[in-house]
């Protein structure tokens, strides 16, 4: 079981600037919890995401001396990927490839075709640089823009990514549109069809529908889950449809009830929760 904690997704749309030292303190607390991966920041345009303009400074303040957690940074173009490739501390580079043309444009100012060309370049650069590219299939469970969508589209995109050598694909419910009916089929079909790819669930949800979504993905074979403490966040480029992240607390509750070891240090987890309430003041 892999739990990916996404403070980047929690912070990126927070209106008040979170001071760099506060971010660093929070991320260091999360590094003590024992998550598989920390999606800690992004190297994107500071105009698009002003909150995360200090990702490089934050990274410099992280204490990685005694953590087993790997670092993931989100990028939205090749330039961001080159920045991330320059840091030996970062193992994963994440790129949002949308199955909705409208959202790809809104999020990265490029078409899906252009984004796929960038993914090919990023994959090559990651292979040369000893890093792993994680591709998020954003709006993977439907979109609010009227762009064509059906469950088979995830298979078509995965086919293209597999041909490029991509090894980690996170099916992403950017706006919380998924239901068990739309979650189960893709995981059931894609996991056995692409044995070289690790599939993750990056789900957004309301507080009332989280359990059925996690249950659907888990029962369909998913063993890689993204979450954010407190269920905070979401993509500002879909702000009109903003739905919070899957709360990590709920993922842990679910897994504990299912008897699945999370490997988390629970005292450190509670400490990070307390800190999260101070970081996201007013939440
Ligand atoms: C991709 C661009 C840059 C295209 O935006 P653009 O306007 O086409 O880019 P540009 O190349 O014309 O550059 C515009 C400005 O950004 C700067 N710039 C350009 N690139 C960089 C860079 N790498 N690092 C630092 N600065 C950069 C560049 O220097 C320039 O600055 P100016 O000259 O105007 O002062 C823009 O659309 C962008 O940054 N988008 C960010 C998108 C983003 O971060 N979204 C949230 C994360 S993805 C997400 O949340 C979804 C996910 C992963 O959680 C899964 C899910 O739920 O779906």
Automatic annotation (TrEMBL):
> Which positions make up the signal peptide?
none
Q: Name one GO molecular function term.
A: metal ion binding
Q: CDD domains this protein is in?
A: DRE_TIM_HMGL (cd07938)
A Pfam family matched in the record? HMGL-like
Q: Does the keyword Lipid biosynthesis apply?
A: no
Name assigned to this protein:
Hydroxymethylglutaryl-CoA lyase
Keyword list, A-Z? Lyase, Metal-binding
List GO BP terms, alphabetically. ketone body biosynthetic process; L-leucine catabolic process
The organism sits in which domain of life? Answer: Bacteria
Residues annotated as domain Pyruvate carboxyltransferase: 1-270
Family, according to the entry, reads as follows: Belongs to the HMG-CoA lyase family.
Q: Which InterPro entries match?
A: Aldolase_TIM (IPR013785), HMGL (IPR043594), PYR_CT (IPR000891)
